[in-house]
Amino acid sequence: MTTAFDLLTLPLLVASGLVLFSLVAGLFSVRLGFSFLLVFLLAGMLLGEDGPGGVVFEDYRLVFWVGNVALAVILLDGGLRTRYATFRTGLRPALLLATLGVVLSAAITAVGARWLLDLDWTRALLVGAIVGSTDAAAVFSLLQTSGVRLNGRVASTLELESGMNDPMAVFMTLTLIGLATASPSSSTQGWFEPLLALVRQFGWGLVLGVGLGALLADGLRQLARFTRPTGGVRALLLLSAGLAVFALTNWIGGSGFLAVYLFGLVVGNRASGSVGPSLQAMDGYAWMAQAGMFLLLGLLVTPTELLRTWLPALGVAAVLMVVARPVAVWLCLRPFHFPARENAFIAWVGLRGAVPIVLGVFPMMAGVEGAETFLNVAYVVVLTSLLLQGTTLPWAARRAGVTLPEREDTRRARRVFGDFEVHGETPMAALCAFYGWPAVDDEQQHVADWVAQRLGTAPTEGDQVVWGPAVLSVRQVRQGRIERVGIRIDDDALG
């Protein structure tokens, strides 16, 4: 006889056992260089109808709901941990990548999709829009577990781009779905309404995220005068407030993703004393959101269906990673004078994760003809990205020279920053005269200003300039200005 407890215990046993297995496997997979998220995705596929679990699951509405809530939690946690200094360093390049970069990636990928998948232009562009944005869950997770410390300019650009590019991807996907499902008589309508929707998404996301974030930050500071809740209670307060901001913004037509990220950013910086004790609990919520989301996304996919389009889908992934993303990064970052090695790394680490799969569900729910193809392509692109780009992130970072030594690694720190350091206001001409370096044009110029001028971009810790036999390294930056400069003498140049 089946009881109510039987209906509870068996699904709970399977779900908790699967999460436990995935976490343990994920801990070992990280040592091998594989992403945690990839393990959760594969575990869900094993539970699905083509795996040993044999579970038939086709609830796209549930996936849509869980995916959006989980992404909101992940973005909230990422915003709470982002410092204003990081925001200032990477805001302009990240904003360009999150808007124009997504459009360029989608357009170039669409060219490949049209040829490889034999689609019309509207559906080819829809494929590009679905896979065109990087994913916050993948980027935040990989940067935390990769074991490398990236320089501030690269890390902030990647983090901010992944946190801000969802509105453009959602806008393009919904607009192209509308064109794909429109009748011939209505397809000639102008782009005014879609563009207005894009402005509304960014505008409401910005206003509500920043405004409500400042309001809650002030409330937390006032609350600290009367009571001091535990870190767990504070985390629940932040989580519920963040989800409320996400839902409210979406309800009035704004971008909930942008709003919840900016909300976390403002609260985390304006009320850091109140937020700090809750970050450990928030990290747990974010990991649970990622685990549940990727398990459910893995459960939704049918591997035998993927096999029907896996070869052209791999071609789409190759176009995206090898052509579209590098071209978009190069064009968007060119005005900011990023070094070529940083451009190359940012182009390679354009990680795709849950967002393309969640966006791939949109055509299924809208009844677009051939919608299964879009979802299958999204899965192949995500699997390829996590396998190739995710596993090679530490190697690529070291190869590109964008890593910084850990603070306790004094030996490597000496190799990067040198054995000596000077204050940023030291006259550069005096250093040249003392060490016998080539003379500089402006004898009154401080070394900090000289290094910044030679760099041609916003300085960040680890930046280097070669002058004669010396390598001058940016050792400390405060509020965008170089404060300390390290000096290393190149023995080969002397000899």
Verbal overview:
By secondary structure, this protein is mainly alpha-helical. The chain has 2 domains: 389 residues, Na+/H+ antiporter like fold (Up-down Bundle), CATH 1.20.1530.20; 85 residues, 2-Layer Sandwich (Uridine Diphospho-n-acetylenolpyruvylglucosamine Reductase, domain 3). The chain has 22 helices and 4 strands. Strands 1-4-3-2 form a 4-stranded antiparallel beta sheet, sandwiched between helices. A hairpin with a 2-residue loop joins strand 2 and strand 3. Helix 3 packs antiparallel against helix 16 and helix 4 packs antiparallel against helix 5. The longest helix is centred in the first third of the chain and has 34 residues.
Would you kindly provide a brief summary of this structure?
Keywords: Antiport, Cell membrane, Ion transport, Membrane, Transmembrane, Transmembrane helix, Transport. It is built from 22 helices and 4 strands.
Order of helices and strands: HHHHHHHHHHHHHHHHHHHEHHEEEH
Count of discrete domains: 2
Mean pLDDT: 84
Distance between the termini: 88 Å
Largest sheet: 4 strands, antiparallel
Unreliable sequence segments: none
Shape: globular
The total count of strands amounts to 4
Instruction: Look up the CATH topology of the largest domain.
Output: Na+/H+ antiporter like fold
Q: Classify the beta-strand content into a percent band.
A: 5-15%
Task: Please give the share of residues in helix.
Answer: over 70%
- Counted by DSSP, the helix tally is 22
Report the structural category: mainly alpha
Examine the secondary-structure arrangement and name the CATH architecture of the largest domain: Up-down Bundle
Oligomer: single chain
Radius of gyration: 24 Å
Spatial order of the strands forming the largest sheet: 1-4-3-2
Please write the CATH class name of the largest domain.
Mainly Alpha
